[in-house]
Structure formats: structure tokens, C-alpha cells
Amino acid sequence: MVSNKGREQRKNNKYNHRMSRKGYANLTEEMKASTSNGELIDRALVWKKARTTKDGEIPDIDTKEVANKIDNLLVSKCASHSMDNVTCDILSQAIGGNDPSGRIRG
Length: 106
What we know:
about 110 residues; mainly alpha
């Protein structure tokens, strides 16, 4: 059944978002509007913002660890690179994605 398949996929979701019905596209637009120059927002920052509560807290321990990795990678590794560089994908590095190069998943 479709609902059973959905339940199984939901169980495998480790990092739950807290966006309600807003979605990533609207959250990204909201974040762009809040910046003064409307620059591109890194997807790692959108991922992190999607998992914070209204108070700015990240209640889940695993998600908090990934958010800390994102902060560290933003400061250290990619400070000198441009944010649109494909090899500097902070979110994949923080989560630990090991997709082979050239393969698109999604």
C-alpha cells in the first residue's frame, strides 16, 4: 500500500523539519528578503533554518550536531571559496553524504 510505503519512508527521516506548509522555496525567499542585498542563500543555511523552532532552538540532538558542523564548515573550509562552488557543498559534508560524483539523486 502507498500509506505503508510512506510510513516506512517517514521512519527513515532522521532530521525532521519544522516548516509546516511553508516549504523550502518559500523559506528561501523569506531568508532572501530578510537580507539587505538579496544575495544567494546557501542551502545549508536553509536546511538549518528549516529545523529550528520559532525560538531559534534546535531540539533534536542529532540535528544540533549537524547544525554545528554546518557552522564550523561555513567558518573554516569555505571562507575563501565562493558559495556557488559545487565542490564546496557544506550540507553534504555536514550530513556525510557519500554520493559518487556525477550521480544525481532526488
